[in-house]
Design a protein that fits this description.
The structure holds two protein chains of two kinds.
Chain A (H helix, E strand, L loop, with lengths): L1 H14 L2 H9 L1 E5 L2 H11 L3 E5 L14 H8 L3 E4 L8 H8 L11 E3 L36 H15 L4 H26 L6 E4 L5 H6 L3 E5 L10 H14 L3 E4 L5 H11 L2 E4 L13 H16 L1
Parallel strand pairs in A: 1-2, 1-3, 3-4, 5-6, 5-7, 7-8
Chain B lengths: L1 H20 L3 H26 L23 H5 L19 E13 L1 H6 L11 E15 L2 E11 L6 E12 L6 E9 L20 H7 L5 E9 L6 E9 L16 E12 L3 E13 L5 E13 L9 E18 L9 E18 L5 E11 L6 E14 L2 E12 L14 E14 L7
Antiparallel strand pairs in B: 1-2, 1-16, 2-3, 3-4, 4-5, 5-6, 6-7, 7-8, 8-9, 9-10, 10-11, 11-12, 12-13, 13-14, 14-15, 15-16
Classes of the chains: A alpha/beta, B mainly beta.
Chain lengths: 305, 446
């Protein structure tokens, strides 16, 4: 009897740790290029998915260093969810090193969630690099606008359901529940931002146009000379003068950009430099999609009041 | 007859609706339900589109107000969308692959005797400024299963000579092989060690490390053949590579035949110590025959460490090191009777090695400074050389870079560096480089 208990105990000790692994193995393994898409995929996928992000919220998603650790994440992915519009083109290099045919470009496991997005700032003239690091397909930072979440999540549902059609109803249900919560929050955000409609802001990098347009704010200038090109002293002088003349109260700074420079310019112009979450996890507390938008709306409302 | 025809037409007109009503009512119901679903889907999508903010002014100098984008029609919205497609973002008239040009101009200033002996870093091009490599890259997907890269290079290979154009790389990568494998065939820069596969304009220094040039030649290992990689599904990253090539590299191999092929292998792993520290380690092997049909094997070890404070756009500290160990057999002339005439050939093993270690600090986004130390024996000749090379880099933007370096090289022997009566035992050089990228360029791996 004692021996039997010992054997059973040993067997449990061996099998026990494997049980959660088996349960994790049943989940759809999704990798998103940026944390916003990770957060939205988690909302839609619920407990049917296990999601990882390649970029972290504090990083600049334009220029991610391709580490083999990213390839390791992609090696096991069933689905890769990408932002598209050339923001995360670097994912191609990581995918090539991952040796995973399920997520190569053109495979069903590759989901570009920019489908159906009405893209802003699409260049209407020929672009070249004299204009800076312009995205030729338009501004790719649409996930910062909560109004885009219905389209993004619909694309995520379609992508997940391609892999697991039997779970489409569950994904749709999760999506509806998330959108209901988002709608509630949107009412709150719209109310908070309503008195500020028409206010002007300066941004460090031009990636905020979607959320600014959503709440009726105007982007008056950028601290960067041109996208991706560091500001010259002459450009900064011009921005400071403009901010003083137009009584602009706020400079929006990305977590990865030079806050010291933005603060100096803001102080010169009698304004505030405020760090917003450029992605989920970009600032403390912005650890879910709604929390990140909450942070951004509160910070905008406080600075512009 | 006319009456008969008239009766037939009337019968048809009367009976046709009756026949239609006799159709399967269930089928009609299904059709109506399907149409209702489509209408619901169209309504939802229209609501989503209407919920989006208005488009602001387009970017671009002197951009006039754009014509309003035509609203998608109900037919457009109802049209079934492909679940996925290649290049769905690309418009009409656009290429189905990417194209880029990288230019790399280098120059050096050194002593007259070094120029005479052609013993500088850019042998034969001492005290000159010249286009080392202007590279046209074409890359993209061939189909859902494979991608291709073609690189054509032009550069001044001889002092004041014509610009030579040649095919630098042309390979196909098979992306959808099973069991975590991938294969590449064609003309490739071999994934041997850290720096060999990097093109001149992408190197973290102006020049290739001495040990790489001494053991593999100025062009490095650039071979025609097949290589396959395997990334097992493990909790940590490891990549195994195996390749079979002609063995065209004259410096180390040169057999140029698949009957005695050059076989390569590499194991690479990666350790991430938190978000800020990352270390890549690898070891490589290349084994084949020389033109004299004698065995030649080169073993390599590599390491690269980066410290990137969280949120930084660039690493603060980068350390890179590689070591090569060459095991090679040579024919040696034997003069048995001492009459100055070779009586026979003897085979002799020569095991030689070399290494380099470089450190770089980049406190600002646009500026970096570093130091590289090289020590290397020669695979065939006696002696060794050591160099120290401090350098500074400046990037006005991501696509333009200037670099300047001072390099001092000390050699224990002057063998091989004594052409035209010159001597290059001690070499002092100022090196400079200007590189640019025009158009597309894939992201750089770690």
């Amino acid at each position: 009897m004692r021996r039997a208990i010992l054997i059973l105990g040993a067997a449990l000790a061996v099998i026990g740790p494997m049980l959660p692994v088996a349960s994790a193995a049943d989940k759809i393994h999704v990798v998103a290029t940026i944390p916003d898409l990770k957060a939205l995929t988690e909302e839609v996928g619920g407990n049917l998915v296990e999601v990882e992000s390649l970029a972290r919220g504090t990083q600049n998603a334009h220029e991610l260093e391709i580490r083999p650790s990213l390839m390791l994440k992609l090696r096991r992915a069933d689905i890769l969810i990408e932002n598209g519009l050339t923001l995360d083109s670097w994912a191609d290099v990581a995918v090539q090193g991952a040796n995973n045919p399920k997520i190569v470009r053109g495979a069903p496991g590759r989901v570009d969630v920019s489908r159906d997005i009405q893209v802003l700032e699409v260049p209407s003239t020929g672009v070249d690099r004299s204009m800076g690091d312009v995205h030729p397909l338009g501004n790719p930072h649409y996930s910062l606008d909560p109004g885009m979440a219905p389209i993004i999540t619909q694309n995520i549902v379609d992508g997940l359901a391609r892999f697991a059609p039997e779970h489409r109803a569950a994904f749709e249900k999760n999506r509806r529940a998330f959108l209901a919560r988002l709608d509630e929050a949107m009412t709150r955000w719209t109310k908070a931002m309503e008195p500020l409609r028409g206010a002007k802001v300066v941004v460090y990098h031009p990636q905020w146009i979607y959320i600014l347009s959503r709440f009726g704010l105007n982007q008056a200038a950028t601290l960067e000379d041109r996208p991706g090109i560091p500001a010259s002293p002459a450009h900064l002088t011009h921005v400071i003068r403009q901010m003083k003349e137009e009584r602009i109260k706020m400079i929006i700074v990305e977590p990865w950009n030079d806050l010291k420079l933005a603060t100096r310019v803001a102080e010169e112009a009698g304004a505030k430099a405020v760090v917003l979450a450029s992605m989920v996890g970009g600032v403390k507390g912005a650890d879910s999609y709604i929390a990140a938008i909450d942070h951004n709306v509160n910070a905008l409302a406080q600075a512009l009041r | 007859m006319r009456v008969l025809v008239l009766v037939f037409v009337v019968l048809c007109a009367v009976l046709a609706p009756a026949a239609a009503t006799a159709q399967d009512a269930a089928a009609l119901r299904r059709e109506i339900e399907q149409l209702q679903k489509q209408l619901q889907s169209v309504t939802e999508r229209l609501q989503r589109l209407e919920a989006q903010p208005p488009a602001p002014a387009p970017v671009g100098p002197g951009a006039a107000a754009p014509p309003a984008a035509p609203a998608p029609s109900a037919i457009d919205l109802a049209r079934p969308r492909p679940p996925y497609s290649l290049y769905q973002q690309r418009g009409a008239g656009q290429l189905l692959f990417d194209m880029g040009i990288a230019g790399d101009f280098v120059g050096n200033i050194t002593q007259h005797n070094v120029e005479k002996a052609q013993g500088g870093t850019f042998a034969g091009q001492e005290n000159r400024f010249f286009p080392r490599e202007v590279e046209l890259s074409l890359f993209g997907q061939i189909d859902p299963y494979a991608s291709a890269v073609v690189r054509i290079e032009a550069g001044e290979e001889e002092r004041g000579g014509d610009i030579a154009v040649h095919l630098a790389e042309a390979y196909v990568t098979l992306l959808t092989l099973p069991f975590g494998t991938q294969a590449r065939f064609g003309l490739v820069r071999n994934r041997y060690g850290y720096s060999n596969e990097i093109h001149e304009h992408d190197l973290p220094w102006i020049d290739r490390p001495n040990v790489m040039r001494n053991f593999l030649g100025g062009e490095g290992l650039n071979e025609k053949g097949v290589e396959a990689t395997f990334v097992p599904d493990l909790p940590f990253y490891i990549e195994a590579l195996a390749g079979v090539f002609n063995g065209d590299n004259e410096n180390a191999f040169g057999r140029t035949s698949l009957q005695a092929p050059l076989v390569t292998g590499r194991l690479r792993t990666f350790l991430e110590l938190g978000n800020e520290h990352a270390l890549q380690l690898g070891m490589s092997v290349a084994s084949g025959q020389t033109a004299a049909r004698l065995p030649s094997t080169i073993l390599g070890w590599e390491g690269r460490y980066k410290y990137r404070p969280d949120g930084w756009l660039h690493p603060l500290v980068t350390l890179t090191g590689e070591a090569l160990y060459s095991l090679r057999q040579f024919n040696v002339d034997v003069d048995a009777d001492g009459d100055g005439v070779t009586d026979s050939l003897d085979k002799k093993h020569k095991n030689r090695w070399g290494w380099y270690l470089g450190g770089e600090v980049q406190p600002w986004r646009r500026w970096a400074g570093g130091l590289r130390f090289d020590w290397s024996q020669y695979p065939e000749n006696p002696g060794a050389e050591q160099s120290i090379e401090p350098y500074i880099s400046f990037w006005p933007s991501e696509f333009l870079r200037f670099r300047a370096a001072y390099k001092r090289t000390d050699r224990t022997h002057r063998d091989g560096f004594d052409l035209n009566g010159g001597s290059a035992r001690t070499v002092d050089e100022f090196l400079f480089q200007a590189s640019f990228i025009l158009g597309a360029h894939p992201a750089h791996p770690f």
